[in-house]
Amino acid sequence: MRAVNRKARRIENQIDASRDEAFALQNPQGGGQQRPHVPMGCSLSFSPGWEVDSAGGTSGLCQPVERDIYDCYVTCFWPAQVPDHLNNYPDWAAKCAAATKDWRNLDLVFP
Amino acid sequence: MTAAEPVYRLGEFHSLNAAGRRFLYLVPAGAIFELDDAAAALLDSVGGGATRAELLRRLEARGIAEAEDLIEELRAARAIVTGDEPADDPAAPPEDFPLQTLVMNLTNQCNLSCQYCYEFGEDKVATPQGKPKFMDLETAKSSVDFLLEQSAGRRAVHITFFGGETLMNFPLLKQVVAYANDRAARQGRTIDFSLTTNATLLTPAIIGFLSENRIGVTVSMDGPPELHDKLRVFANGRGSYDIIAPRVRELIARHRTRPITARVTLTRGVTDVIRIFRHLKQDLGFHEVGFAPVTTSPDRLYAIGDRGMDGVLDQFHTLAEEWHQYALRGQMHGFSNVSDTIAELVQGVNKSHPCGAALGLVGVGPSGDIAPCHRFVDSDTHALGHISRGIDRAKQRDFLSRGHISAKYDCRSCWARPLCAGGCHHEAFVRYGDTGHPNLHYCGWIRDWTETCLKIYCSLSAQNPEFLDRFAEGKALS
Question: Is ipTM over 0.90?
Answer without folding.
Answer: no
